């Protein structure tokens, strides 16, 4: 029996692509943006949940009229979600999409040569 070859006989070696510097850089950029924001949002979310459960007097504090701290923080969850989404889309358009388009174009060029 012969040993399996390192690259596929008819096609692109996607494992090698995944190990390539441009792909690793793309993954690094993505992770460096996503993970800190994920952690920050989860801390903010769980702070809201814990305050709602254990600091009911604080959350019931009226800011003006019937508007309470809890209501403002709850609506802030929605605002934060939309803000993070818009920020990610902007980041992806500027930093991730050009790099992924370059990797894709390189793969398509290799595919036409095979």
From TrEMBL:
Coiled coil: none annotated. It comes from the Bacteria. The chain crosses the membrane at residues 33-55, 67-89. Keywords: Membrane, Transmembrane, Transmembrane helix. Pfam families: DUF485. This is DUF485 domain-containing protein. It comes from Candidatus Microbacterium phytovorans. The lineage of its organism: Bacteria, Bacillati, Actinomycetota, Actinomycetes, Micrococcales.
């Amino acid at each position: 029996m012969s040993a399996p070859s390192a690259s596929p006989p008819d096609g692109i070696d996607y494992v090698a692509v995944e190990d390539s510097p441009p792909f690793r850089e793309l993954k690094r950029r993505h992770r460096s943006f996503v993970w800190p924001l994920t952690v920050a949002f989860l801390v903010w979310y769980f702070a809201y949940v814990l305050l709602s459960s254990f600091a009911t007097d604080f959350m019931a504090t009226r800011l003006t009229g019937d508007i309470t701290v809890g209501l403002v923080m709850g609506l802030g969850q929605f605002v934060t979600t939309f803000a993070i989404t818009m920020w990610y889309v902007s980041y992806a358009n500027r930093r991730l999409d050009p790099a992924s388009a370059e990797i894709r174009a390189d793969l398509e060029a290799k595919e036409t040569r095979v």
